[in-house]
Design a protein that fits this description.
The chain is mainly α. The chain has four helices and no strands.
Length: 79
């Protein structure tokens, strides 16, 4: 699952795979359109819905945050 998430992030922007900061939007790694692409591709790939209130720095700060969010949502989707 993690490899698939990282592949999606890398397809949007290679820098996401090496970025280790805490806020990829504020640091200029991604813009709002990139974020929309990431969310859309993750929702489609994992058959999940990412609500607007989940689009936070804690969930989309860096690749590790995104992986944790998707794992949580995918697990919740199983039950």
């Amino acid at each position: 699952m993690e490899d698939k998430i990282l592949a999606i992030l890398g397809n949007v922007k290679d820098e996401l795979l090496t970025y280790t900061g805490l806020n990829m939007v504020d640091d200029g790694i991604v813009n709002s359109l990139d974020l929309i692409m990431i969310i859309s591709e993750l929702e489609e790939a994992f058959d999940i819905e990412i609500d607007a209130e989940e689009v936070t720095e804690e969930n989309f700060g860096n690749k590790d945050c995104v992986v944790a969010l998707i794992k949580k949502l995918a697990e919740k989707n199983l039950f």
